[in-house]
Write a structure and sequence with these properties.
It comes from Flavobacterium macacae. The protein contains 18 helices and two strands. Strands 1-2 form a two-stranded antiparallel ribbon. It is globular.
Length: about 425
Amino acid sequence: MKNKELLYQLLYFFCIGVTFLNNYELVFAVWSVTILLTLQKKYSITLLKYISFFVVILSTAFISSLFRDHKIYGIIRDITYLAKPIMGLWAGYQLCKVSSEKALKMFIYTGAIISFIHIAIICITIITYGTFNVNLIRQEAGYFSDYEIYVLIMLIFSDKFKIQFSKSRLRILILLVGVSSFLYLARTNLIQFVVLFVALKGYFVLTKKSIIVLVTIFITVLIGYGAVYSSNPKRGGKGLETFLYKIKIAPIEPFKTKINKDDWKDFNDNYRSYENIIAVKQVSNEGLSAVLFGEGLGATLDLGREVWSNDGEFVRYIPIVHNGYMTVFLKSGIFGVFFLICFIIVLCKQKRVNDDEIKHINYFLIGTGIFLIFSNWVFLGLYLKLDNKSVIIGFLIALRQVIDKENRILYLNAKENEKD
């Protein structure tokens, strides 16, 4: 039994840790092996329902590709890309097969190890280059970490999950994960923290109090943004000024409708919007069938010019874009986008329960769904090659079942003791 638990713990760490290496082939291999090693005979209806949305998106893209002449390599590549959320949900669900206490500690300690490694890399980078340059540090140590934000939130609300840590250990873990999370200097992680914190407080379950709190948070964010905007941080500034500049342009960057591609500043600052504009034009030009059901597996977006990719090469034709909705639109049209939105809606509609621990897991899932609305627009959502939120969602679904099973056993044991 202990050997099996150790195997699951190692597989879980590898499934999360491998996403930080920016190598999707390796992610696909690790997740595939994990699924095969932990196959089950039974699965929850909830998991199958969540997976089904992504199966429909993948199937639609496959059928659309039958009517188009795409390269085999592109088709195989897109199958692996579009299957990513399915595999993540599946792997995460299967890896939560220990007690709830051990599962939660596995979840947290995985984040703590990642945080320690991240801080160590930052220290090495600063010592090596002799400077605290935000762009350099992010390039060397990583651009964001959704997982550490989940762990940080769980630590902050540790009493709600009945996590048995001493006060000193809890403080050390919060400090470690909190510092690491901040040092990514990622706008998306900042938004994610706020969304998940508000979710765990239960404020997305609408009441008079929650509406007042949400309005207050919205006004506070507007005031904060106004302060950043009025400080007028410059592009290419030093230290935190770079981060503040990114916050300044954040509301415009993904929504701009006109881009001057000959102005390199305008093009670089609003590149996400440029991709969206090109995607809509290209698919629309292919006719009604493409708009409804996409261009299929193997479809690529023609940017009209070569750009420097994250993989370190100049490319003109790209298989995916930053926007998850647009990526699905390119592959499986409005039909696919509809099912992606349905997944988010279903994730946000969790049942009300009395058990406090399960209730806060549901809050986590609701917060994840709300964050995915934004994440899909700017960062591909669950389709991002570096993303591990699908593993987290699958893990939380299974954890909820484990806790429910433990509660039923305790209830039955209590009943038996009453009879005796």
